[in-house]
Specification:
heterodimer, A: mainly alpha, 4 helices, 68% helix, 0% strand, B: mainly alpha, 9 helices
Chain lengths: 98, 184
């Protein structure tokens, strides 16, 4: 098979010492810049902050009063302020039973 | 470092190991050139494209999802870059008012040989060019070529056969001989 090979050696990229120079050039040009490091680390930091914020928010979310409790509080305040029996006192009683 | 797998080299390079980065460049730069030259035709432009693509690949190593297939990932990027370059050249040529001066790199020694080969390769399709250059210049196996070009090994052999036939006809044809014959 090898004897059938077409001689394309004239097309060899970076012949001789030019290959070493090309390798050096690539490595010099590809040395990590401050910007690329910051972008990469910044992205990781952003993810970490987002996760921390979510974790911190979970207990707050679990401890928050239910809408019915809030409504019962409003009714009680209204009753105390006006002295008039709220019309939807049944729901208020239900909230207290909860 | 030379015997390490691409996967391991990429992991080391991501950990800022300079020797791993160098090993990746040495292993894949020439194949990147072949892919580029198969598309753009000009060896000097292909060298620039290969170098630029390699630099970008090293800077974006963290985006390489399959480190074991770093070579394929790089060559995909080279192919896109080469096609973009080709489109830019065509647009420039379409709007050029006068012929552009030849780049410095295209006038050195060996230019005539490269020009002759480039002209011969010009008659092939991009995939035929890639196959014959990877096989006959870079000594890749058909299995490696098939894997990187996403074609079957049979197709790779067929492309090589057609490409070689065309190149032999083109490279051995001497226009001066025909001229002399017609005069005599």
């Amino acid at each position: 098979m090898d004897e059938e090979r077409v001689d394309l050696s004239g097309f060899t990229p970076w012949p001789g010492a030019a290959f070493e120079a090309a390798v050096r050039r690539v490595l010099r040009g590809a040395s990590p810049t401050l910007e690329s490091v910051l972008v990469r680390q910044g992205r990781a930091a952003l993810v970490a902050v987002a996760v921390a914020a979510m974790l911190a928010w979970i207990p707050v979310w679990l401890a928050r009063p239910s809408p019915r409790t809030v409504r019962a509080g409003e009714l009680l305040s209204q009753w105390a302020a006006t002295g008039e029996r709220p019309t939807d006192v049944e729901s208020f009683m239900g909230a207290l039973n909860d | 470092m030379q015997d390490e797998s691409d996967e391991h080299l990429v992991a080391l390079a991501l950990a800022a190991d300079p020797r791993a980065r160098e090993a990746l460049v040495r292993r894949h730069l020439r194949a990147a050139f072949v892919v580029a030259v198969a598309i753009v035709g000009s060896a000097a432009d292909a060298e620039d494209i290969a170098q630029d693509s390699m630099m970008i690949a090293l800077n974006r190593l963290h985006q390489c999802r399959e480190p074991a297939r770093f070579g394929a990932w790089l060559r995909h990027s080279v192919r896109n870059r080469a096609l973009k370059h080709l489109r830019r050249v065509k647009v420039r040529q379409a709007f050029a008012l006068r012929p552009q001066p030849m780049p410095q790199a295209e006038t050195g020694s060996g230019f005539a040989v490269r020009q002759h080969l480039a002209k011969a390769l010009d008659g092939l399709s991009p995939v035929q060019r890639e196959v014959v250059l990877l096989h006959d210049l870079e000594s890749w196996t058909h299995a490696e070529i098939a894997d990187t070009l996403e074609i079957s090994e049979v197709a790779s052999r067929q492309h090589l056969f057609v490409a070689r036939k065309h190149l032999r006809q083109t490279l051995t044809w001497d226009p001066t001989r025909k001229k002399e014959g017609s005069h005599g």
